[in-house]
Amino acid sequence: MNRDLISSPHLRVQPSVRGVMLRVLGALLPGIAVCTGLFGPGVLLNLLWCISAAVLTEVLVMALRGRSWRVIGDGSAVLTGALLALALPPDAPWWLPVLGGLFAVALGKQVYGGIGFNPFNPAMVGYVVLLISFPVAMTAWPAPHLAWAADAVSQATALDHVRTELTQGRTLSEIQLDPGFAGHQLRGWLWVSLAYLAGGLFLLQQRTIGWQIPLGVLLGMGLMALIFWGVDSDRYASPLFHWTSGAAMLGAFFIATDPVSASTTPRGRLLFGLGVGALTWIIRSWGGYPDGFAFAVLLMNILAPTLDRYTPTRVYGTGRRPERP
Amino acid sequence: MSDVLLILLGAVLVHNFVLVQFLGLCPFMGTSKKVETSSGLALATTFVLTLTAVVTHVIDTWVLAIFGLEYLRTIVFIVVIAGVVQFVEMVVQKTSPLLYQVLGIYLPLITTNCIVLGVALINVRQSSTFLESALTGIGAGLGFSLVLLLFAGLRERLAVADVPESFQGAPVALVTAGVMSLAFLGFAGLA
User: Fold this and answer.
1) Is the CB of residue B164 less than 8 Å from the CB of residue B54?
2) Cβ–Cβ below 8 Å for A112 and B161
3) Most B CBs within 10 Å: which of A163, A264, A299, A302, as the mutation test of the B interface?
4) Is the ipTM above a cut-off of 0.85?
5) Which of B35, B164, B179 sits opposite A298 (nearest CB)?
6) DSSP 3-state helix, strand, coil percentages of chain B (rounded to 5)?
7) Which of A15, A124, A318, B24 could hold A294 in an S-S bridge, CB 3.0 to 4.6 Å?
8) Burial of A319 (0-12, 13-18, 19+ CB in 10 A)
């Protein structure tokens, strides 16, 4: 055993909020690149509008509260704007991302006193406000197709398509033969999901995020899908379909892992992830909305303080769990 | 069996009486500052809701409908609810002092809660059977308890947040309740 011994003093990198936010933004880059390639420049425009609106809102609130506007330097408003922008349809009119950024930061974060105090995921608050207020604009996704062709066609996403066709009484095996569906839709969304997965694995390797929430989300969604797909594969889609469509990968690694609004104990985080995954599947399969990820995150945010209360961590050195507060 | 589940699930989550139908907001805002107080109220409300849903159903079918007195429904329900709650309070006080201490002041408070009258009237409007009325009452109570306890958990966390001055107290609580309501819209279409 020949290990290099390093003598003290040991310098350690202090993780700063800014550093964490920048790393998460960096991990989003492959996803942004693939989305831009598949959906065109609208993705970048959305990012521009959303981030500008989020940052400007933060500056405005800081001015109203008589505080320094320099807090925007921590990058959290930028990240909120970016996450929201990636969840919006790329062809959205400009006011959609602007309103979203405004609501996300004002209603989701600054009302509660800014970073560290928000009980709900700001980006998802913005998303749900938009989805409820402008349902048509929010569900008009262009079909993924390579390169910035001029003849972009707006059509339902894979999740939407499966959903509407299932209510028409068709079976999944029929739907999968639809022209354009198997080729464009599934392959396009697969690439998007893989890009987000790559970014997420990078964050895991850097220990910027813990493994509990992403694993919980994917497990919760996968188990529910597996059970019902096993029972009736004509009415319920496979786990793989659920993992690679909609907001699954982006959500599991980037959205649900928000350290402020999620549960804070290790077991609580695992339960939080499982809940998000299972609720997403339930809303997708039985609910009234094509993708339930945003709702699932907000619902589990409501539950997070209660989860923390019932999953206390062991006090180091005592060997038993503390009494409930 | 699946009907029973559907009614319960519907009343607890999909048509949650507080977050989706906006009934019973006063105790929701008023007693949610601490988890302990809210659990007492949650217990008492569930109890009263179940009981009054059953009693008002019986009165409506066996008295009001038979004598053609439907136009007196609202006022009769109010009197019946107040009477039942007072009666229960007296019985509980004599028979179980411990339970009386737990439910305590909350029991008479619930009499004036719009959620109780709301459940009774909604049951009539949907012409529910006896069993359906009872289930709706239980479901409404469980749904109320669920969101009240979760809301209390959130508010305990909000107590230490650096909320802007103009939003401290009730305003930020109302904003939070609003976002909770948005989240519960996700259940729309489930049952």
Assistant:
1) no
2) yes
3) A302
4) yes
5) B179
6) 80, 0, 20
7) A124
8) exposed
